[in-house]
Write a structure and sequence with these properties.
Helices cover 39% and strands 0% of the residues. By secondary structure, it is mainly alpha-helical. The longest helix has 14 residues, at 32-45. It is globular and about 55 Å long.
């Protein structure tokens, strides 16, 4: 069973409890209402620095972690899509003039505007599903 902050009496969640929560979400072995309850608890109670650190680490390690060549200068311009990606597209184009790598890990299907990837996918011939090697 997933531990919520209610069941801990408001005490700080242990690393293992947070790891179990994230693992359960990823494996889809937890009911959506339990996810909602835990997230609401996070919102209302807040998270300690340790809980935030553990949650971030667990979420990061729940998928593929990219490894970059140590000689690269890697920068990020995170985008949620917005109405027109008015900053993302020109900024990334400008950054292409410099010796930096911009991985552009972006979202899809974000509301009525779509995500950045949705817009890029609409460009004929644009390749947006890249292998790790590319």
């Amino acid at each position: 069973a997933v531990v919520s902050t209610q069941s801990t009496g408001g005490q700080e969640l242990s690393d293992s409890e947070i790891e179990h929560f994230v693992d359960s979400v990823c494996k889809e072995t937890i009911h959506p209402s339990q996810i909602g309850a835990m997230l609401m608890s996070f919102c209302l109670k807040g998270l300690t620095t340790q809980e935030t650190t553990t949650l971030t680490r667990c979420m990061m390690n729940s998928g593929t972690v990219q490894k970059w060549d140590p000689s690269w200068i890697v920068v990020d311009k995170h985008s949620t899509g917005g109405v027109g990606d008015k900053v993302t597209f020109p900024l990334v184009a400008a950054l292409a003039c410099f010796p930096v790598k911009v991985p552009m890990i972006s979202g899809r299907g974000l509301g009525h505007t779509g995500g950045t990837i949705d817009k890029l996918a609409a460009i004929p011939g644009f390749e947006y599903r890249l292998s790790e090697e590319k």
